[in-house]
Structures are given as C-alpha cells and as structure tokens.
Specification:
Blueprint (H helix, E strand, L loop, with lengths): L10 E6 L10 H8 L3 E5 L15 E6 L9 H13 L3 E6 L9 H10 L4 E4 L4 H8 L13 E5 L13 H6 L3 E5 L5 H10 L7 E6 L7 E6 L3 H8 L5 E5 L6 H4 L11 E4 L6 H10 L3 E4 L3 E4 L4 H9 L6 E4 L2 H14 L10 E4 L2 H8 L14 H11 L6 E7 L5 H8 L3 E12 L7 H8 L3 E4 L2 H9 L9 E4 L2 H9 L6 E2 L5 H15 L1
Parallel strand pairs: 1-4, 1-5, 2-3, 2-4, 6-7, 11-12, 11-18, 14-15, 14-16, 16-17, 18-19, 19-20
Antiparallel strand pairs: 7-10, 8-9, 8-10, 13-17
Length: 510
Amino acid sequence: MSEQSADNPGICYLVGAGPGDPGLLTLRAKECLEMADVVVYDYLCNAEILNHAPQSAERIYAGKKAADHAIPQHKLNDLLVDLSSQGKTVVRLKGGDPFVFGRGGEEAQELQDAGVPFEIVPGISSSVAGPAYAGIPVTHRDHCSQLTIFTGHEDPEKDETVIDYGKIGMAAGTKVMLMGVGQLQNVVSKMLEGGTDPDTPVALVRWATTGSQQTLVGKLQDITDRVQRAGFKAPAVAVFGNVVELRSELNWFERRPLFGRKIIVTRTRSQAGVLSARLRNLGASVDELPTIRIDPPEDLKSFGRLVQDSHKYAWIIFTSPNGVDAFFDLFFKLYEDARSIGGARIAAIGPGTAAKVKARNLAVDLLPDEYVAEGLLKKLLDDESVENEMFLLVRPDQARDVIAKGLTEAGAIVDEAIAYRTVGEMGDPTGAAGRFESEGADVITFTSSSTVEHFLDMGLPIPENLLIASIGPVTSSALHSAGLEIDIEAKESNIPGLVDSIADYFAKLS
C-alpha cells in the first residue's frame, strides 16, 4: 500500500539489494519492499528478496546484465518517474548499493528533476562483501590501510577510457574491480605496463555470498590464463593485493558442509523461509519453488462457529502450524482475551506446531514421541481417558482420518474444524520453475504429501541425478505412490531433522 494518498505524487525508493545472500538485505530495504506497489529489479538481485513485497505488488524486470538491458536506462528513468507520479510506492531494487557503480545517482537526478519524492536505501556492496565471503579482508593492519574501488565497465558511449589502470595498479593497498571480467585482460595488461608487480596476488569471486559462489586465485601475470582455462564468467568481483593470501586462513564460507549444493524448497512461499535459512546457514544454494499455497476454508462460517465454541471442548488438537495460525487469527478476532479458550487442553502433532502454539503464550499439554498422526493418537490413548470427552480437531480440508477415526472408535466425541485449504501454487514470480527446468539441482525437498502432489501437477522434468529428500514417512508414502525413490528421509519429522539428514548424507560422501 502506498505511503502517499492518491492525490499526491508517490515515492520512489532506490534500494540496495545487497550482494546476493538474502540475509544481507537491510531492515530498511525489507520495510520498503513490504509497502511497495511496484518493484523494479535488476539481474543481480536475488529473486527471493522479491518475496518481501506484497503478492499484489507489480514486479518489473529491468535486466541490466552488462550491455544487455531489458529496459534501456533512459526508458527506465522515465518509467520510475511515471510510476511514482501515479501515486504509487515504487521500489527500485538494485544489486549491491545503488550509489556504488549502480547508476542510482542518475536515477535520483531524474526523480529530483521531475519533482518526485525519493529516498536512498544503501545496500551492502559486493566490493567488500564478495571478498569477505571468500575469506579476503579488503583492509588489514598488517597488509594495507588503503582501498581503491573501480569499475571495469565504463559507459560504452565514451570515446576513450578515463580510468588509468596503470596508476590504479601502482596505488598502495587493495584494489577491487567490479563488473570487469570481460575487460580483465585489458586491465591486467595496463597494470603490468604501468609497473605493477607481476606476482601481485589476484582473486576473482563469482556469484559472491551465494551458495553458487566460485573463487579463482592466481597472480597478476597468470590470472587471465587461469580465467580462460576455467571458463570463469561474470558476474564476479576481482581483488588485487596481498590480502588475497589471507584466504587460505580465513576461507569460512566455502568450508560449510552444504556449500556448492543446490537445493530446491517446495514449501509454501510464507513457510519456505525457515527451511531455506537453515540450508543457507550450511552453505547451500537454495531456490524456493513453492508448489502449494494456503487458502481459507470453503466454509469459513462453520470454522468460525467451532472456533467460537472452542472453550466447550476438553481438548483442541492441532495437526500443523498452518492450523494454529488459522485458528488463532480467527480466535482473536472473536475474543480479546486468551483465557476465553477456557479449560481446553492442547495437543500438537510435532515441535513445529507446538512452537506456533507457544508463540501465542499457551502451553502444549501433549506432544507425541513420533511426529505423525499415528503417534499423536497413540499418545492420547495411552495417557488419557478419552471416552465421552469432546475433541476439536483443527486440520486442513484434505487430511488422513487417522486421528478422528481412532478417537471416535475409542468413544470420544470429535468435531473437525477445517481451518484451511492446501491448493496448488499457480504463480511463479521469481522464475524458479524455469531455473529448475534449465539448471536442475542436487536435492529437492518435500515437507508434506501435498507438496509432492502439486509438484507432480506442475509437470516439471525430474533430472536423473536429482536427490529426493522427505520430511518423514507420510510424505515418503506419497512419493512412493508416485513411483519416486527417496534418497534422504528425516530421522525426526521436522525441519531441523530434514536439514540434519541432508547434511549427514553429504558428509558421508566426503
């Protein structure tokens, strides 16, 4: 929703998206995205960052890949002015920092000339973050106290370069070049001609700060040969100087257990973040390909009546985190006080569901040893007398009837509150499906039988070497029914258990 009224000009936020790792996005950048009506984003922006914008926000790809621009700069400037002048909140999302070789200054000038309000939101530049993730500090008291940042990609309309690479090579301290892989041979030649030591250490860091990061190290005299032999491509940051030698000690990121592994997450867009974050913390390159989304139940009135009467039950059973959210979101629209839930005791199917209940400042009275419906039913029947007791079972519209049937056969009175529907995710705003089809992955994760069902509905080809990871036996059963082999199954049916099992699998290979 726009910060401005419809009668006034909108506002354009020139936002730095950071170097690639979505965890490096600033809090202010996230705030701007959350209130955006339109997001205009570049090639180097991690597509997952777009998830912070409302689903209703228009997303416009501006490209900006070397000389190949989806929208030429002058037209892009006009677009920002036009959208903002319509009273919209526009986020111009730029890789790294908008004022570090990002042409943010030019865009800000256009907005200023047009009388459009704007704000600059700095981002973490790849000029420092890229080397840092490769274990290279750009300054160090024992090595250098000066940093020079320059670009290898000037305005192509200039008659001649204004950058004296020979002088830059002779400057003291560390030199960092952005956008220069295509010009590397020319830059290196000019440095050598200018008298730079041929043995100067050089490192190139490609797709820095992401799980796809690649680092190539050499000397000034041989780095171009190394680049050609390795087929090293843009986008990359180049670092020149003695600090490169510290990489052997400080290379922290590329030593993580899942570094270099590409993993697909198929959870809902709103839930994917927890699993994605855990995988990224272990160094994986994560692509979120939501196969499902959560919609309200078809009969919301019936669900509302059961929520309203929840204080009448001896037990409330939650079978998923989504059920907890749906229940309490409605509960607190009906009641102001959590005590209105009365004396109902609460059972949760697993720790993730229990954590959602506890986040509402309510205790969980029963948690099974096995985090499946059978485990919860067994725990109830073993520990409690259920005959003639009233149970409210909060569940999705399509779920196995294990709990309801088992309790009813034991003499309990069970009402089923259909809290939400799991439906196929039709949208793909980040292009994850296309990337999966063209690039493949090492692992695809499934966290419910519905993620399996709706992934298969997408009709995407499954690469022969793709590993399939399942959160537990119920999901595995759905995979088996679809004729798919399971390579990894979580020992504990929860997100930490799934991540641990994936890490253990690859640890055994090394």
